[in-house]
Structure formats: structure tokens, C-alpha cells
């Protein structure tokens, strides 16, 4: 029941983005909105940067090579996509996969906070520098990855504490053995936080 209510709220939020059209230029060049997918009752919300080509075509985040790798990482801590929720800071594919512009990230920020307010996860795991630094302004990914940080944010008009765990982007670790090991270790932290061990 609760789950259905959250899914309905998320659907309404996706429709609101379509109506408000916060980034008309991105929308005009993209195939579709990539709002987010997974379990609306998840304890962990993963947040990437922006959809790529595969995501744009399919309408779901992390369905390409980085997504396959993400599935491996999830599998290493006995998690499935249906246990987690996943989205991006920017919800339309930037042309030619360029980095999202600061104004594009800013345009989606209030909707992202609303998405988090609906799901109420225990932890937000950011994937990559762009996503991490949207939450933690002085982030240095090589120094801060794998270390949960508490943050005060206003969610739905109420000031609340959220826990943000910055992680490397799976695409960065795809062909880098040592980053891969680091990411595997950091996923253990995700698992320990959601099972209340940390
Ligand atoms: N990289 C991202 O940051 N997000 C996606 O959805 C896919 C690749």
C-alpha cells in the first residue's frame, strides 16, 4: 500500500517535470525523460550524472556498460535492481554525452530533492564526481569516496538529515582494476549501512 502511494507520487513528479520542462533545450534533443527506476521503498538511492545513449533510448538509468558493471557491484553485496532505486542528477541526455552544465544540474535539483523526499532512503550513494559534488561542495572523490557524510537539506519544506555516500562512477572503474577493487570495497559500506551495521 505504502509502496503504491510512493510510486504514484513518483509518477506525478515525473509528469510535473514533463509539464514544467525545466531544460527545454535538453528535452528537444533527447528521446525521452529518464526519470529513475527501481524500488520506491528502497533504503538506498543511487544517483548518477545524466543518461547516456542507451538510457535515452530505453528511458531507464544505467542500462549500458556502466549499468552492467553496477549490477556486478550490487550482486557482490547480494543486492538486485529491485532492491534499490536509481536515478540521475540530470534527467535528459546531454547531446553527445557532454558533461551536464551547472544550470542543467540546478534546474533538476528541486525535482531530485522531491524524489528523495518521496522515497526517504537511509542513504544516498552518489556515482561519480559530478553527482557527489552536487551534494558535497568540497568533494574530492579520491579522498572522500566510501565515507558517509551527514547533510542537512530541506526536503518537502522540512529540514532533514540525509546520509550521502560518495562513490566512484562505475564507468570510471570499468577498465581500471584498482578503482574496481575500491568500488567493490565501497559497496560493502552501502551494504553495512542498509543493514544497520554502520
Ligand atoms: N552514466 C550515468 O551517470 N547515468 C546513467 O544513467 C548512465 C551512465
Key terms for this structure?
198 residues, alpha/beta, Uracil-DNA Glycosylase, subunit E, 9 helices, 17% strand, globular, binds uracil
Task: Provide an overview of this structure.
This protein is α/β, with parallel strands linked by helices and 198 residues long. The protein has a single domain (2-194), classed as Uracil-DNA glycosylase-like domain (Uracil-DNA Glycosylase, subunit E, 3-Layer(aba) Sandwich), CATH 3.40.470.10. Helix content is 47%, strand content 17%. The protein has helices at 2-20, 24-29, 53-58, 65-76, 102-119, 129-135, 141-144, 170-173, 177-194; strands spanning 37-38, 44-48, 85-88, 123-127, 149-155, 158-167. Strands 1-3-2-4-6-5 form a 6-stranded mixed beta sheet. A hairpin with a 2-residue loop joins strand 5 (149-155) and strand 6 (158-167). Helix 1 runs antiparallel to helix 5 (102-119). The mean pLDDT is 95. Bound molecules: uracil. Uracil (URA) is lined by residues 48-52, 55, 61-62, 66, 88, 171.
Amino acid at each position: 500500500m505504502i509502496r503504491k502511494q510512493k510510486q504514484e507520487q513518483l509518477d506525478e513528479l515525473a509528469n510535473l517535470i514533463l509539464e514544467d520542462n525545466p531544460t527545454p533545450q535538453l528535452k528537444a534533443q533527447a528521446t525521452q525523460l529518464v526519470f529513475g527506476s527501481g524500488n520506491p521503498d528502497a533504503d538506498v538511492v543511487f544517483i548518477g550524472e545524466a543518461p547516456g545513449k542507451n538510457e535515452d533510448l530505453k528511458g531507464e538509468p544505467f542500462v549500458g556498460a556502466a549499468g552492467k558493471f553496477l549490477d556486478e557491484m550490487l550482486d557482490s553485496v547480494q543486492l538486485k535492481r529491485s532492491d534499490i532505486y536509481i536515478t540521475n542528477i540530470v534527467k535528459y541526455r546531454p547531446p553527445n554525452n557532454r558533461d551536464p552544465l551547472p544550470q542543467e544540474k540546478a534546474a533538476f535539483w528541486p525535482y531530485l530533492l522531491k524524489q528523495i523526499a518521496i522515497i526517504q532512503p537511509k542513504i544516498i550513494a552518489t556515482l561519480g564526481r559530478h553527482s557527489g559534488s552536487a551534494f558535497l561542495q568540497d568533494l574530492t572523490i579520491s579522498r572522500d569516496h566510501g565515507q558517509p557524510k551527514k547533510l542537512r537539506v530541506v526536503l518537502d519544506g522540512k529540514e532533514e538529515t540525509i546520509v550521502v555516500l560518495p562513490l566512484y562512477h562505475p564507468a570510471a572503474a570499468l577498465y581500471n582494476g584498482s578503482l574496481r577493487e575500491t568500488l567493490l570495497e565501497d559497496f560493502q559500506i552501502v551494504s553495512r549501512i542498509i543493514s544497520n551495521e554502520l
